[in-house]
Amino acid sequence: KKTENQILVIFGASGDLTARKLVPSLFNLFISGHLPENFVVLGASRSDMTDTAFRKKVVTESTYLEKKLEKLDKEKIEAFSNKFFYEDLGGSYDTDYTRLRKRVEDLKNKYNTSGNIIYYLSTPPTLYETIAQRLADAGMNTQNNGWKRLIVEKPFGYSLETAKQLNKGLQQFFKEHQIYRIDHYLGKETVQNLLVTRFANSIFEPLWNRNYIHHVEITNAESVGVEKRGGYYDKSGALRDMFQNHLLQIVSLVVMEPPISDAPEDIRNEKVKAIKSIRVMKSEEELYENTIRAQYVASTIDGDKVKGYREEEGVDANSTTETFAAVKFFVDNWRWKDVPFYVRTAKRMPTKVTEVVIHFKTPHHQIFKDSGMENRDNKLIIRIQPDEGILIKFGVKVPGQGFKVERANLDFYYSSLAETYVMEAYERLILDAMQGDATLYARADEVEAAWEFVDPILDYWEKGKDVRMYGYAAGVWGPENSHDLIDGIGEWRNPGP
Ligand code: BG6
């Protein structure tokens, strides 16, 4: 696809995300020849900085580029960093953008970038609407001399109500098709491959329903704690930070019906339908039965003392924010009726891993009794990270007399495609936005549908009766009680490191 000439304006450019994610992604796009011929980046923030200082801050001092610097010729780095410019907003985002507009126009004329502009909002979300409004006030949202797109980072709201407000607020100044809500999990190859696994093969989809699938399990584990983001995390928690967005996005791709084509709106329409068919839990009994939250407590991992969540910097000493969340739910539609889904996400688990496990039913009639195969030994495991791949577990006959059955694996790992360059999630998503492809971005109704499901859980956890906050030692697979959720069905699959 062609990438038209354009300007990328980054609000909150002096922040961490620019140096950590955006600059490295842009750099890779530059090296691989994906950036348009005429292209500049204009950083905008409150603080005062020269272009040179900005380049130094985000480009030259980017740890990512620093690592690469030695291997790369200086000219390349310089050519790349020469694309970066900076304009301060005079101490506040809520200000007149006339000067910013003038700067954008000067750059456009000087570098022949045309009037196409992406505004990337990498500021606290409380500023999103203000920035959109100020852009509109300055006439910077009009599309008559080139397209304008707005990329916003998560969180998209804090609850259903605030998400709706945010969507409405932004839509006053930008049309929905101009708004790109980034969810970096959709930029992961293995997440996109869920679509290909299901809809480009004829061996999986016929089984992909309640007749053959017993239950679905999704685990997202991180070994790190809240790191330096205690202040943010304590107001968010695992359900808002991971589940409402990344995990429900994965769920939507597992659950969705085949789209009529791979066009962005065809795919997004099916995803919204999928999220809307998740049964919203309403009664306290349901919420009590089907949700578990917990916090990690101090422990020793490999001989190192590790702090408990409540001791982390920026975290309230009496915090009731969860660092572990597990939810069981059903999807009320033709395909999934009565198939339970178990989804959990947590910090400070034994390892970092994200995977989807499709547990197939046991064959209706067991011929090979005492065969050594347990119930439901057919599994399809979609390993999202690390060791990205697809694993199939099935039974084979042990050579010799009788019919002893043993488990075998048919495993595919992405690493075996050594020749293929796999783009980083951000790299892929930024390039898509540059090309106007919104397939891998979340639409307003999708985000709201996800909140519809999550809101009652958060509400219950905050105010409900009998809600418990369990503890788990940092470095284990969550609280003991999380097994209760999946009891009677089996056990959580805890993949090794
Ligand atoms: C972010 C969350 O969206 O995703 C973080 O805010 C989390 O808390 C991160 O660590 C995980 O992303 P990944 O790509 O490392 O799985």
Automatic annotation (TrEMBL):
UniProt: NADP(+) binding residues: R46, K154
Catalytic activity as recorded in UniProt: D-glucose 6-phosphate + NADP(+) = 6-phospho-D-glucono-1,5-lactone + NADPH + H(+)
Residues at which substrate binds: H184, K188, E222, D241, K347, K352
Residue span(s) of domain Glucose-6-phosphate dehydrogenase C-terminal: 195-490
Organism superkingdom: Bacteria
EC number: 1.1.1.49
Annotated GO biological process: glucose metabolic process; pentose-phosphate shunt, oxidative branch
Keyword tags: Carbohydrate metabolism, Glucose metabolism, NADP, Oxidoreductase
Positions of the catalytic residues: H246
Entry annotated with the keyword Transferase: no
Every Glucose-6-phosphate dehydrogenase NAD-binding domain range: 9-193
GO MF annotation terms: glucose-6-phosphate dehydrogenase activity; NADP binding
Coiled-coil blocks: none
Annotated InterPro entries: G6P_DH, G6P_DH_AS, G6P_DH_C, G6P_DH_NAD-bd, NAD(P)-bd_dom_sf
A GO cellular component entry from the record: cytosol
Known pathway: Carbohydrate degradation; pentose phosphate pathway; D-ribulose 5-phosphate from D-glucose 6-phosphate (oxidative stage): step 1/3
Stored PANTHER family: GLUCOSE-6-PHOSPHATE 1-DEHYDROGENASE (PTHR23429:SF0), GLUCOSE-6-PHOSPHATE 1-DEHYDROGENASE G6PD (PTHR23429)
Role of this protein: Catalyzes the oxidation of glucose 6-phosphate to 6-phosphogluconolactone.
Similarity comment: Belongs to the glucose-6-phosphate dehydrogenase family.
Name assigned to this protein: Glucose-6-phosphate 1-dehydrogenase
Taxonomic placement: Bacteria, Pseudomonadati, Bacteroidota, Flavobacteriia, Flavobacteriales
Gene name as annotated: zwf
